[in-house]
Specification:
Blueprint (H helix, E strand, L loop, with lengths): L2 H5 L9 H5 L4 E3 L5 H14 L3 E4 L3 H6 L7 E3 L4 E4 L9 E6 L5 H13 L3 E5 L7 H11 L4 E6 L5 H6 L5 E6 L11 H8 L6 E3 L5 H13 L1
Parallel strand pairs: 1-2, 5-6, 5-7, 7-8, 8-9
Antiparallel strand pairs: 2-4, 3-4
């Protein structure tokens, strides 16, 4: 093995995913070395494909900088290299129960937008003030897919699923203290829901929620 191969462990990007699944690949940044991120960014630009980088730090965004530029959002911690617009997809509504859930909800929204969906965002509409949800209900009730991010008791997705026509993707977040147990209470609450049309992704998995919404909205 030569010296360069030892410095830069091999990375295998799935450039066939857009044609196979209709969604772009997403690079999970934690645990990646600087050399790996640089190699990935260079390969993406060489092949001129859209790519997202999740849970990216500002320092990692600097490493992946180039032409075209990497667009970095510090709220969602998502970096995007974009060459062309994706084929237009369906409408996805993205809700957050509280403002503390916004980073994870924003990650889901950005992933859906990158993959061509029209996204409507409604933040801080949790069940502690149910009038906030009811005020936006006319705008979300006919959306084919609704992503709902919630921590603490995780109640909002169940309420939304009982009121809207489309598929609801519950996105539990690790927001909460004490017995909220890092999002496990929210996750279990959503999994135990009796509201029809509610499916659930893993805790803080905004990427998974966004990609699933893209696939569902295309159907």
């Amino acid at each position: 093995m030569n010296e360069d191969a030892q410095k830069t462990p091999e990375v295998r990007l799935d450039f066939e995913r857009p044609g196979r699944k209709g969604i772009s690949e997403v690079i999970y940044c934690p645990g990646k070395s600087d050399a790996q991120l640089l190699t990935i960014a260079q390969d993406v630009r060489r092949r001129a494909v859209n790519m997202a980088f999740s849970r990216m730090t500002p320092e990692q965004a600097g490493i992946a900088a180039g032409d075209p530029p990497l667009e970095y959002d510090p709220v969602s911690r998502l970096g995007v290299i974009k060459f062309e617009s994706a084929e237009p997809g369906g409408l996805v509504a993205v809700l957050s129960a509280g403002s503390s859930d916004v980073p994870i909800a924003s990650e889901a929204a950005a992933i859906a937008e990158l993959n061509g969906c029209r996204v409507k965002k409604f933040f801080d509409v949790g069940v502690a003030g149910l009038h906030r949800l009811l005020s936006i209900l006319p705008e979300i009730k006919d959306a084919p897919v609704v992503i709902v991010a919630a921590g603490m008791d995780g109640a909002l997705p169940s309420v939304v699923a009982g009121l809207v026509r489309g598929l609801v993707i519950g996105l539990p977040t690790s927001v909460g203290y004490g017995v909220a147990s890092g999002g496990n209470v929210a996750l279990n609450s959503m999994l135990s829901s009796c509201s029809p049309g509610l499916v659930v992704v893993n805790i803080d998995n905004g990427v998974g929620a966004g990609l699933s919404a893209v696939i569902a909205a295309q159907r």
